Amino acid sequence: MEEKNDDLNELFSSINNIRNKYLSKCKLDTLYHYTNLEGFLGIVNNNSTEMWASNIEFLNDSREYIHGIELCKDIISNEISESTSEKNQEFLEYIYINLSNEKNEVYGISFCKDGDLLSQWRGYSRGDTGISIGFDVERLSKFRITESPNTILSPHKIIYDKNIQINIIKDILKNGSELLEKSNLNKNFLINTILLELHFFLPLFKNHSFSEENEWRIIFTIYNEKNEEKEGMVNYRVRDNVILPYIKLKYDPKYGSLEEGKTFFSEIIVGPTRDIKLTERSISHYLKEKKLDGIKIDSSEIPYR
């Protein structure tokens, strides 16, 4: 039993080492979330203590998740062809087959380092007046999912460098292969743990051509074996031409209630629009009615066309 515990400790230690090596700790005070006026109203009307993470399969980021899956499959294929161990080949083949499990659902909220970026206005305002909301980074880590209260939902920096993406995948696979050969861990448990770790990183991979976005994401995945929880967790709304699944992230009350007149964001930037000053005044009026003060309202420096 003690030997098995040592193997478990080594497995989880290797996972922590990979995360510490490749995940960027956010040292920013503010991250910006791009939306439109309707999305902004939704956040404030929920007392700013609730955010919605959308299923990325139905967003413009869906192709990027496929990018990570395809890159991972290419690497695994090469590893299989180069491996001389039958046991290791079987391990890699199982990972390959189960990598694209359609029952896994990835939900995310995107943030940006820059609150006034043309590509973000185009991508997230959806033809309406765009708004970027400056959220307090420290407070973002105090949101939880009711059905999964122990899951820490910190924002993670998107990884654009393909070489780093490759190194992450190879390191995870290498740890799994080495432990498979030398440990007494249950084979299925080890394989599923490696799959979970790959699925933790893959939603953070994007093509390098998007690197100007400086994107950060809060990611939550409903895994296939937890689908019994999905019914009470997933909600639906209409956006553009799709019925969009989403989950609610709520502020954890154990951190205390917000003072009256305070919220989780401190800045609003109004995107390029025909009558930007009128939009600013309407936002200011709305915040006053909601008794929210001390929120800075700025205009985009990008000219309207």
Summarize the structure.
This protein is α+β, with helices and mostly antiparallel strands and 305 residues long. Helices cover 43% and strands 22% of the residues. The strands form 2 sheets. Strands 2, 3, 5, 6, 7, 8 and 9 form a 7-stranded antiparallel beta sheet that branches. The protein has a 4-stranded mixed beta sheet with strand order 1-4-10-11, with helices on both faces.
Keyphrases for this structure?
305 residues, 7-stranded antiparallel β-sheet, 4-stranded mixed β-sheet, 43% helix, 22% strand, elongated
Verbal overview:
- With 305 residues, this protein is an alpha+beta fold.
- Helix content is 43%, strand content 22%.
- The protein contains 10 helices and 11 strands.
- It has helices at 2-22, 37-45, 62-82, 86-99, 118-124, 137-140, 162-182, 187-201, 230-233, 276-289; strands at residues 30-36, 50-55, 105-112, 130-136, 143-144, 156-157, 215-222, 234-239, 242-251, 265-270, 296-299.
- Strand 10 (265-270), helix 10 (276-289) and strand 11 form a beta-alpha-beta unit.
- The protein is elongated and about 70 Å long.
- The protein starts with a helix and ends in a 6-residue tail after the last strand.
